[in-house]
From TrEMBL:
Keywords assigned by UniProt, alphabetized: Hydrolase, Membrane, Transmembrane, Transmembrane helix
The protein's name: AB hydrolase-1 domain-containing protein
Pfam families cross-referenced by the UniProt entry: Abhydrolase_1 (PF00561), Abhydrolase_4 (PF08386)
Peptidase S33 tripeptidyl aminopeptidase-like C-terminal domain sequence ranges: 432-532
Keyword Membrane: yes
TM ranges: 7-28
Family matches, as SUPFAM superfamilies: alpha/beta-Hydrolases (SSF53474)
Naturally occurring in which organism (per UniProt): Gymnopilus dilepis
């Protein structure tokens, strides 16, 4: 069931390499990655013995023990809020209860989390990372995740295929690169037409109700089911669209609201996806300059100047574009193509502190003619499926993603010429468009449901000011968007983190986490124009450093950062939490979960 979560596992797996303490240990860890990949391929919430079918949906939150240390529930909500007595949906929820004893005067209620996407699973996020999230925001809160309507364990589920194997086989016929050939845009357009027809054919009258406005209404329903009136929320990436939508719809119900890695919601609801790539090349520059500064001992793809490294990377792109590499190892096999390399580079830009050293090592091996390491990062062992008649509902990340973003946004013209024009215009602004353009193109041929849901404006005087967080070099949600969105919400504040990566957890900044913690606990906002620095660099020096919890894991990197030297015990705990959080792949990615792409 988990075959399509390739880059979700990629982040988790590669993080073990980033912790290597010296270069030879780093190489040993990398050589064993295929075995680690096979092991971690199975370690997800779905592999723990718990059946959501045993949870009956209810009008109240009936929490039941599910995964270790977690409680789960299914909450009934109206499928159509304009018809509250009509068909129903059931939202899957998970929580890690507050550490405080029941009835404590310090208990502060639930904080809801959304990892982005759209289509990301909040259940997976809280299952994997609730303890770390609690360390950051405080033990006073319940950590609550939910699968938005149409997603994963929530029902009805957005599903276009009859079986998992049917979905998998369709996905493997897709191209990562829109312009992979002269007919690439046309091929992407044609496949989207097919998906639109499959979606319409599989729709049981529920599909049009899978959108962000209804999910925002579901969140208010969840808050009220907790006996609360105001939402406490931390949303990342697409989760910022959800948070901004909630704030605009229900300004009087905002308690604490953090939106982190902010999307331009106006651009999103217009289905343009045209402003995301403004800082992608700026983020890539941090890899190039960081590698030069790290030197050949700590960056395997080192060259004397950033331009030299970029030229070497371009050479690898050109080589794979003209001559893909056959791969056969003991664990897997396949063909490594240009699009795979481009996808891994973009994945690393999302999580520089977790992936830059591994990216450099993979590039160095590829330059030497060995693509097996890069391939092992991207692909688990060959897909296997029992394919029997009792096959359970499969993971539907891509179907849910397409359903939400295509329902949310303005209709996309169905003609091929409009798709070609859109790609050409986006490509003029960034060559990353050859991958990014498919997000909008996926909506070609989507059923023409009425656009009677909320699409803005994003202007409100919220009952408590919003905190927006943005990185100075975010590859897909530029800081510019946070500043733009802040203008619509009275008294909101933008907190800037001076780091590369997607969302604040991409880099370990105790400064940022302290501001987020103080906001949730005390309601304290940072001063306008506050800039937080991360601790350490994406390419750290290969020196061991002790942990406050005892001897650090073998091969842990030191930062040589003065901020680390002056850190209090409390801040060190916070630092360890955010650093670990950055390795958990809690942020969903609307593009990089590329197996299968439709």
């Amino acid at each position: 069931m988990q075959a399509r979560r390739r880059l979700a596992f990629l982040y988790l797996i590669v993080s073990s390499c980033v912790l290597a303490g010296v270069l030879f240990r780093f190489l040993v860890n990398l050589d064993s990655l295929s075995l680690i990949l096979a092991r971690n391929h199975l370690v997800t919430s779905s592999s723990v013995e718990f059946s959501w079918d045993t949870l009956l949906p209810s009008q109240t939150l009936a929490w039941t023990k599910c995964y270790p240390g977690r409680e789960c529930a299914r909450l009934i909500v109206p499928l159509n809020y304009s018809d509250p007595d009509g068909p129903e949906a059931a939202i899957a929820l998970i929580r890690r209860p507050s550490y405080l004893p029941e009835g404590s005067k310090d208990y502060r209620g639930p904080v809801l989390f959304n990892p982005g996407g759209p289509g990301g699973s909040g259940v997976d996020m809280v299952w994997k990372a609730a303890d770390l999230l609690s360390t950051i925001i405080g033990p006073q809160f319940d950590i609550v995740g939910f699968d938005p309507r149409g997603v994963s364990r929530s029902t009805p589920q957005s599903i276009f295929f009859k079986t998992e194997v049917e979905q998998e086989l369709w996905g493997w016929k897709s191209d990562l690169i829109v312009n992979n050939s002269d007919s690439g845009v046309a091929r992407t357009w044609a496949r989207a037409q097919v998906i639109g027809k499959l979606a319409a054919e599989s729709d049981g009258g529920y599909l049009r109700h899978i959108n962000t406005e209804n999910t925002a209404r579901d969140m208010l329903h969840i808050v009220k089911a907790h006996g609360q009136s105001k939402l406490q929320y931390w949303g990342m990436s697409y989760g910022t669209v959800l948070g901004a939508t909630f704030a605009a719809l229900f300004p009087d119900n905002v308690g604490r609201l953090v939106i982190d890695g902010v999307v331009d919601s106006e651009d999103y609801y217009a289905t343009l996806w045209s402003k995301n790539l403004l800082d992608t090349d700026k983020t890539l520059e941090t890899f190039l300059t960081g590698c030069v500064e790290a030197g050949p001992e700590d960056c395997a793809f080192w060259a004397p100047t950033p331009k030299d490294i970029n030229n070497n990377l371009t050479t690898l792109y050109d080589s794979l574009r003209s001559r893909p590499l056959p791969i056969k190892t003991d664990q897997t096999y396949g063909v490594l193509e240009y699009g795979h390399l481009k996808a891994f580079v973009l994945a690393a830009l999302y999580s520089p502190y977790a992936l830059y050293p591994a990216l450099a090592q993979a590039l160095a091996r590829l330059a030497a003619g060995d693509g097996s390491l890069l391939f092992s990062f991207l692909f688990p062992p060959p897909y296997q499926c029992a394919c029997g008649p009792s096959e359970a509902p499969y993971d539907n990340l891509r179907e849910a993603q397409i359903s939400i973003l295509c329902n949310d946004g303005d209709d996309v013209p169905d003609d091929l010429e409009s798709s070609q024009k859109y790609f050409e215009e986006l490509y003029e602004s960034s060559d990353w468009a050859e991958m990014w353009a498919r997000i909008r193109l996926d909506c070609v041929g989507w059923p023409k449901f009425p656009k009677d849901h909320f699409q803005g404006p994003f202007v409100a005087n919220t009952s408590y000011p919003i905190l927006l967080v943005g990185n100075t070099a975010d590859p897909v949600t530029p800081l510019w968007a946070a500043k733009k969105m802040s203008k619509g919400f009275n008294n909101s504040v933008v907190l800037t983190q001076d780091s590369p990566g997607h969302c604040s957890v991409a880099a370990p900044s105790v400064c940022t986490m302290n501001h987020i913690r103080n906001y949730f606990i005390h309601g304290t906002l940072p001063e306008p124009s506050t800039v937080c620095e991360p601790i350490g660099k994406p390419f750290p020096e290969s020196i061991q450093v002790a942990s406050p919890f005892g001897q650090s894991a073998a091969g842990e990197h030191a930062t040589q950062d003065p901020l680390m030297a002056s850190m209090s015990q409390e801040d060190r705990v916070l630092y360890d939490a955010v650093r670990e959080l950055g390795k958990k792949n809690i942020i969903s990615n609307p593009f990089l979960g590329f197996g299968p792409l439709f």
